[in-house]
Amino acid sequence: MKFDVVTFGSAVVDVFVNTDVAEKRNLIAYPIGEKILIKDLKFDIGGGGTNTAVAFSRLGLKTGCICKVGKDEQGRSILKLLKKEKIKFLGKEGEGKTGYSIILDSKEKNRTILTYKGVNDKISLKDIKKFKTKWLYLSSLLGKSLESQKRLVYLLKKRGVKIAFNPSSYLIKKENLQRILKLTDILILNKEEAKMLTKKRENLLENLYELIAEEGIGIITDKNRKIEAYDGKKKYSLKPNKIKVVERTGAGDAFAAGFVAGQIVGKSIEESLSLGLRESESVIRYFGAKNNLLRIKLK
Ligand SMILES: Nc1ncnc2c1ncn2[C@@H]1O[C@H](COP(=O)(O)OP(=O)(O)OP(=O)(O)O)[C@@H](O)[C@H]1O
Ligand SMILES: [Mg+2]
Fold it and tell me: Whose CA is nearest to atom 10 of ligand 1?
C-alpha cells in the first residue's frame, strides 16, 4: 500500500490544567506554598506527529505516523488512538517513557507548556517500518529523531516523495536546518519563527522562499492576523475570522495539516489556505489539539 502522507513527529499525552490563575506581566505565576485549585482537568493525546496524522486521516487521506512511545499506559493510549483514527503506526513501542505535556492555562486563555520529551527524541531509522508514500510531513523533533528525519528526507526525496515541514522556534534556534529546508516543498512557520529563520524583519516571504526547494511554497501564519503564502510567482493572503478562543493548543498543527492536505489532493493555494484556516478555527473552538478536527473526505 502506498500512503498519501506519512507524518513524522511527536506523540505525547497532554494534560490541560485550567486554574483561573490570572496573568501578571507576561507570567502565569503560582505562589510558593499555596495549594491552587484546578478548575478543570482534561487529558488528551497530542504532539505534532499524531495531531497532524489525525487531521490527514479524517480528511480521507491514507495516513501513516512515525512516532515513538514507551511501553506504558500513555503509550498504549496513543497506539489505541492511532488505530481508532485508521492511522498506520510506522514507529516503535520501545524502552523509555512516553512523552508528556502539562498545559497550564491562564484565566486569559494563554498557556505555558511544560513538556517532557521522553522517547520522542530517540527515534532511530531502525525504529521505522518500511513504507511507501507520496508525501512526508515533518514536525519538530530533536536529538536522534531529528537526525533520522534528515536522513529519511535525503532517502525519500530521491524517490520523488514531497516534503512538508513545520519546525518550531526551539528547532530553528538550536539546529542547522539549511540542507533539509532546501529539500522542503512546503514550509509552514509562524511569524516569530519566520523572523528567526530568515534573520530578517521584512520581506519574510521572499527570504523564506530562497531557503526552500525549487517550486516550493512558503507560508507564514500570525495568530488572528493575515496568513501569507508565496510560491515564487504570486503572493496569497487570507484573514482569519473573529472567533471565540476556547483553547488554542494545536492551532498551528491543524492549519498546517489542512493546507498540506489541500495540496496533496491537488487543490489550489487559495483553497488549501481556506482548508487550513477551517481546520485551525475548528480546533481553537474546542478543548484539546485534535478533538474537533474536520471530518470531510477530500478523496
Ligand atoms: N486568536 C485566533 N483567532 C482566530 N484564528 C486563530 C487565532 N489564533 C490562531 N488562529 C488560526 O490558527 C493559525 C495558526 O496559528 P498561529 O499563527 O498562532 O500558529 P502557531 O504559533 O504555529 O501555533 P501553535 O502554537 O499551535 O504551533 C492561524 O493562521 C489562524 O488561522
Ligand atoms: Mg507552530
Answer: 223
Specify if 72 maps to a domain.
yes
Count of C-beta atoms within a 10 Å radius of residue 170: 12
What CATH number corresponds to the domain at position 258? 3.40.1190.20
- pLDDT for residue 299: 85
Q: Which one, of 152, 102, 92, lies nearest residue 122 by Cα?
A: 92
Q: Is 243 in the pocket of ligand 1 (CB under 6 A)?
A: yes
Residue 8: strand, helix, or coil: strand
Residue 193 located in a structural domain:
yes
Domains held by the chain: number: 1
Specify if 20 maps to a domain. no
> How far is Cα 32 from Cα 35, in angstroms, rounded to an integer?
9
With a threshold of 0.90, does the pTM exceed it? yes
Domain that holds residue 183: 2-10+47-98+118-284
Which H or E run contains 7? strand 2-8
Question: All 3 cell numbers of residue 54?
Answer: 489525525
List beta partners, residue 218: 187, 230
**Nearest residue (CA) to ligand 1, atom 16:** 223
- Protein residue with its CA nearest to atom 29 in ligand 1: 221
Atom of ligand 1 nearest to the CA of 256: 14
| Predicted pLDDT of residue 125 | 98
User: How high is the mean pLDDT in each 10-residue block of the chain (299 residues)?
Assistant: 97 94 93 94 95 98 98 98 98 97 89 94 98 98 98 98 96 96 98 96 96 98 98 98 90 97 98 98 86 91
3-state secondary structure 122-169: CCCHHHCCCCEEEEEEEECCCHHHHHHHHHHHHHHHHCCCEEEEECCH
